[in-house]
Amino acid sequence: MPSKKAPLTPKQPLHELPKTPTGITGLDEITMGGLPKGRPTLVCGSAGCGKTLMSLEFIVRGAQEFNEPGVFIAFEEKANELATNVASLGFDLNDLQQKKKIKIDYIHVDRAEIEETGEYDLEGLFIRLNYAIDSIGAKRVVLDTIENLFSGLTNQAILRAELRRLFQWLKDKGVTAIITGERGENTLTRQGLEEYVSDCVILLDHRIINQISTRRLRIVKYRGTTHGTNEYPFLIDEDGISVLPVTSLKLEKPVSSDRFSSGIPALDKMLSKGGFFRGSSILVSGTAGTGKTSIAASFCNEACLRGEKCLFFAFEESPAQIIRNMHSIGMDLQNHVDNGLLQFYASRPTLYGLEMHLVAIHKAIKKLKPKVVILDPITNLITVGSVSEVKSMLVRLIDFLQDEQITVMFTALSLNTVVNEQTDEGVSSLVDAWLLIRDIELNGERNRGLYIMKSRGMKHSNQVREFLISDEGLDLIDVYLGPEGILTGSAREAQMLLEETGQVLHTHAIGVKDSELLRRRKILESKIEGLKSEFESTEAELNKSYIEEAIKKEVMQQNREKLTSLRGKEVDTINSKNKKNKK
Amino acid sequence: MSKAYELRLYVAGKTAKSVTALNNLKKYCEEHLKGQYSIEVIDLLVKPQLAEGDQILAIPTLVKKVPEPVRKIIGDLSNEEKVLVGLDIRAKNIV
Predict the structure, then answer these.
(1) Cys staple from A336: which of A32, A107, A341, A525, with CB 3.0 to 4.6 Å?
(2) Rounded distance, CA A21 to CA A34, Å?
(3) pTM of this prediction?
(4) Which residues, in sequence order, are bridge partners of residue A312?
(5) Cβ of A364 under 8 Å from any chain B Cβ?
(6) What domain range includes position A87?
(7) ipTM for the complex?
(8) Closest CA to A139 of A90, A177, A192, A93
(9) Which residues contact A276 (CB under 8 A, 6 or more apart)?
(10) Do A238 and A283 reside in the same domain of the chain?
(11) Are residues A312 and A427 in the same domain?
(12) How many CB atoms lie within 10 A of CB A122?
């Protein structure tokens, strides 16, 4: 063994690009950790797409969450204007400034005030920046929007050379910087800043499709690291910016074989072991007025009764309306709301774009952490997107929910066409269980028939049940399968009545026949009796003649004997005569 | 001291441009404003905190505080015409 060999050291991890987390929800996931540490990042986009806010949030979150002080150099807005603008997001810039966590420096460039003669450089800017950075020990710097320099100074050659020097200087300084830039005609930024900032470029976009605006974010490039390449929608609300890495490419979700009740006992019976799987997705589809919302409400009522948190996204009715309506079928949702178990989240689909809805749904779910989520109805979302968009949104939503082990129930309005039925928003292939409620129109009335179209991983009834909504709640009853086919509603009632009548008549008829039989029997019996007595009388008569004859014989015998005794000799003669005659 | 012209020249160290600018400025002032001006040279390398007050970006920058309006002239002041116009010593339309 060669003893010279150095002892084995653990393998050095490959040197990866160090990153600075932004603290902006979702952005760090897309960038796989944040912005490149110690390098400038370009954030560009058209007016009003959130550049300033994003960069400011980068500074504020850095100061609040990562203890990295930051300098915000504003070329557009004054410090107090900025502070007012972001106060609604809960960022107290003045307080942070006083605590020396951040420094906001407003650089005013006014062409009218400035006369240019001869050579100059931007050392003044460098000095100010340097001073600001050093005064609070800043790790983060934002220049918003440095392009304003171009409108204030005319000597482009100097400006460009100085910008190049500035970005290099920022790198040397080791601060993580965001430079914002206005979107240009054919370039990412109007002044071609992307030439100077080449490590990471984030493009913000504010698009209006069908009168609905959606903000999107895309990482155009990010040197030296992998990153999400798609366009991600983002939302600006009271908590700042949230970006949603909405597409998960993996299908590695935990599954649960726990089951729980749907709130309708008869429906649970249709499923082999009494309910749906936890974490599964259930689609309830049906035409208008078939009770989809009622099923969803009952599902959520049951969850709340079990003590599980439930989030109800209503895209059609207001929460108050749902609570009132469900009260009429014996569900007290208000109680659950008061207990904090049930939360409604109502918004009009047209409030914002589809992706925005998804972001909002994500946020609401992350906040409440419910066990059960209801979306009622998903079909309304069609108004803000095409079928394929809705589908892709739902895929991502189901993805997310399954990851979190949240059971979700969608309701979908299906139109009265046969073609549509199998492909409700195209989500039927995504969901684990699909209940279909159908109008069965017969004899001038409509009734509801409920089918389980599919239920993955469990035996389930293949029969149509009649779905009843009554004051007591929801119930399913077996439909009547008669010689004339499936009967529901009053036809079923009528048929059942008819059968009952038949039964009574039948019993009656049998009674009549029985008594007839009895009568016949009686008649026959009496006939038999008559014949018997007739026979007896005949017999008696016959007996009588026998006796008479016997008596006659006896009498004659007696007479003869009397005569014989009277005649004496004659008798012998007679006897002899008789003997002769006999011979 | 109350001079008609209060001028401030912001520089960053003794760079060639700064020196040129200061020399040019002194020359123009001697020619046109003899006795009625004061020049204050501020080296931002020494006092960086002063850059914010006058919104200094470029170096060198000449700021005319008095008389109003405040004007800034950036560069090495090599173009006499522009400097004089900028300092409102000469009206713009006169060439």
Answers:
(1) A341
(2) 4
(3) 0.67
(4) A344, A374
(5) no
(6) 19-113+120-243
(7) 0.88
(8) A177
(9) A259, A260, A262, A282, A407, A432, A433, A455
(10) no
(11) yes
(12) 23
Residues of A in contact with B58 (CB under 8 A): 120-125, 153
Give the CATH number, domain containing residue A385: 3.40.50.300
Tell me, yes or no, whether A582 lies in a domain. no
Chain A residue closest in CA terms to B56 = A124
Number of structural domains, chain B? 1
Q: Domain tally for chain A?
A: 3
- On whether residue A484 sits in a domain, the answer given is no
User: For residue A222, what are its two tokens?
Assistant: 């990010």
Q: Which of A126, A52, A129, A44 is nearest to A93 (CA)?
A: A52
Q: Is A8 inside any structural domain?
A: no
Residue B44 is assigned to a structural domain of this protein: yes
Say if residue A156 is in the same domain as residue A125: yes
What tens-digit pLDDT sequence spans chain A (583 residues)? 444 444 444 455 566 788 888 888 788 888 888 888 888 898 888 888 888 888 989 999 999 889 999 999 988 888 888 888 888 888 888 888 888 888 888 888 877 778 888 888 888 888 888 888 998 999 999 998 888 888 888 888 888 888 889 889 989 988 999 988 888 777 777 777 777 777 888 989 888 877 777 788 888 888 888 887 888 878 787 778 888 765 555 566 667 778 888 888 888 888 877 788 888 888 888 888 888 888 888 888 888 988 889 999 888 888 899 899 888 888 888 989 998 888 888 888 777 777 778 878 888 888 888 989 998 888 777 777 677 777 777 877 887 888 788 888 888 887 654 444 444 556 677 788 888 888 877 777 788 888 888 888 888 888 888 888 888 778 888 777 766 666 777 777 787 888 888 888 888 888 899 999 999 999 999 999 999 999 999 988 888 888 888 899 889 888 888 888 887 655 566 566 666 665 5
Are residues B58 and A118, on separate chains, in Cβ contact within 8 Å?
no
| Residue numbers of the domain that contains B27 | 5-86
Q: Does A97 touch chain B (CB under 8 A)?
A: no
How many angstroms away from the CA of B43 is the closest CA of chain A?
Answer: 10
A109 touches chain B (CB under 8 A): yes
Q: Is A113 on the interface with B (CB under 8 A)?
A: yes
Is A432 within the bounds of a domain?
A: yes
Partner B, chain A 147-176, Cβ-Cβ below 8 Å: 149, 152-153
Phi-psi region of A234 (alpha: psi -120 to 50; beta: other; left: phi over 0): beta
Contact A122 B77 (CB under 8 A): no
**Min CA distance, B13 vs chain A (Å)?**
10
Would you say A142 and A71 are in contact if contact means Cβ atoms under 8 Å apart? yes
Instruction: Among A478, A505, A532, give the residue marking a domain's end.
Output: A478
